[in-house]
Amino acid sequence: MSGRVELDSWQKLRQSVLRVEQQHLKTMFDNDTQRFDKFSRQIAGVLFDFSKQRVDDQTFSELMQLADECDVAGWREKMFSGQKINITENRAVLHTALRNRANTPVYVDGVNVTEQVNAELEKLKAFSQRVRSGEWVGYTGKAVKNVVAIGVGGSNLGPQMVTDALAAYADDTLNVHYVSNVDGVQIASVLKGLDAETTLFVVSSKTFTTSETMTNAKTAVEWFLESANDKSAIAKHFVAVSTNLDKTRAFGISDENVFTMWDWVGGRFSLWSAIGLPIALYLGFDVFVEVLEGAFEVDEHFKSASNQDNIPLLMALLSVWNTSFLGYQAQAILPYDQALHMLPAYLQQGEMESNGKHVTFAGEQVDYTTVPIIWGMTGINGQHAFYQCLHQGNVIVPADFIASIEPQQQVGKHHEILLSNFFAQTEAMMAGVNAEQVRTDLAAKGKSESEIDDLIPHKIHKGNRPTSSFILDKIDAKAVGRLIALYEHKIFCQGIILNVCSFDQWGVELGKGLASNIEAELTQEGITHPHDSSTAGLMAYYKQKRKN
Ligand code: F6P
């Protein structure tokens, strides 16, 4: 047993499901003209509207009670103060210390990590400035023009998402390219056209053992040496971000070219650490600091706002309500901003790797659905792909809609058209279209009664589909920092409420081990491991065809 279903609030919320299921969101709005004011919140640069979620006053107060009974505030304090709440790995969870702009001391095992973080930030600053200014030169004395960032999962998604989101502010000092997939097609296409003399590789891996990253890094070294033909030149073209100095040394990267992170930084929360180096290189160190500052603002909000005004907590409670009570098993992320096109992928890792768990902190089976399937894409493209299902499918998918007031680039009336869609879609998902509206519409178009009767069932939109809306001032560095931190803290609160350890990823570790065994079978003669008939058959088929 999870210990959650016995809570008074949990029991009450279960009862509330029956009441809420009888109510249509449109009726809730019709009956309460204050609903938007009641169920929306603001912090600097962000409006969060959850009035189109299926909550009423009673549910809201029961969710508040749930947060209290789960002691979210107590756990929040434990996280910020460096207690080892990642119990399965005996680690603190301190990505917040990486953006602690107040510089207050935070201790792990008696060491003030704030000092370590600041020292590393200084190193990052000095290096990124040397590279950007052209002071750092390659083996032939030329300045760096292209940065190739090699890493996967949290060592890739965060930096890539942020540099894509802020590309509109980049000058033409450097280009940045990312390689995450072990499929050789990716690195081959990135390296094509690059010049070894002006290329800097950043190999980012917390463990420096991740096979995909190591394979790509070795290929990069081989490619580089084909031109440089001198191993000593590697020092000018390869830097690493890692906790594992033994491995970076063994790889051939000298210590002064290694930026460190710490075991209390989870991979999927690591973009605030030196893992963010590509951000500083591409956009400048000051922009990287602004991203940290935006996140820090949200940390302060998360720590100090009351439960009922605490946006990350509200996001988490709504997610638990939708998933574990109303039974919605998916959650769409729909940015109406091209700059945020990678946000769905980023949050997919953030939420699913964190809370995709089946046991509680204490190792008991949970008796409710934990994490929903997170997916999505930019809203406009989604409208022409999967919104049909969001509007009329019989699987209900709650969705987060994200837009900004100011576009990064003002091009004609594009932003007004984009935002019109943003507003229209959430309204339609909430209100739907009933038979009477369809009849009136079709009659006005001159359809006969029998045609109208035939079409009505197809054109009815039941509505009552929950959405939250976020409106940011503008997608700039601070806004990106704020947005990511809001979701990070949401994921944390969600984990606490669900009573799962959000900070480990044993499921991913399993996959890493499995693939390495099979790799030996594919590449070396005479090695076989026992497999089921399907896996053995697939491998035999592959090997046979590959030989021909
Ligand atoms: O995807 C699983 C994971 O363990 C992530 O948590 C991490 O971000 C990623 O692998 C990469 O790991 P590393 O930085 O050690 O290469």
UniProtKB/TrEMBL annotation:
The keyword Isomerase applies. GO terms for molecular function: carbohydrate derivative binding; glucose-6-phosphate isomerase activity; monosaccharide binding. One of its GO terms (cellular component) is cytosol. It is an enzyme of class 5 (isomerase). It is found in: Cytoplasm. The active site is at E353, H384, K512. Its main location: cytoplasm. Keywords: Cytoplasm, Gluconeogenesis, Glycolysis, Isomerase. GO terms for biological process: gluconeogenesis; glucose 6-phosphate metabolic process; glycolytic process. SUPFAM superfamilies: SIS domain (SSF53697). Its EC number is 5.3.1.9. It catalyses: alpha-D-glucose 6-phosphate = beta-D-fructose 6-phosphate. Pathway: Carbohydrate degradation; glycolysis; D-glyceraldehyde 3-phosphate and glycerone phosphate from D-glucose: step 2/4; Carbohydrate biosynthesis; gluconeogenesis. It holds the Pfam family PGI. Belongs to the GPI family. PANTHER family: GLUCOSE-6-PHOSPHATE ISOMERASE (PTHR11469:SF1). Catalyzes the reversible isomerization of glucose-6-phosphate to fructose-6-phosphate. This is Glucose-6-phosphate isomerase. It comes from Pseudoalteromonas peptidolytica F12-50-A1. The gene is pgi.
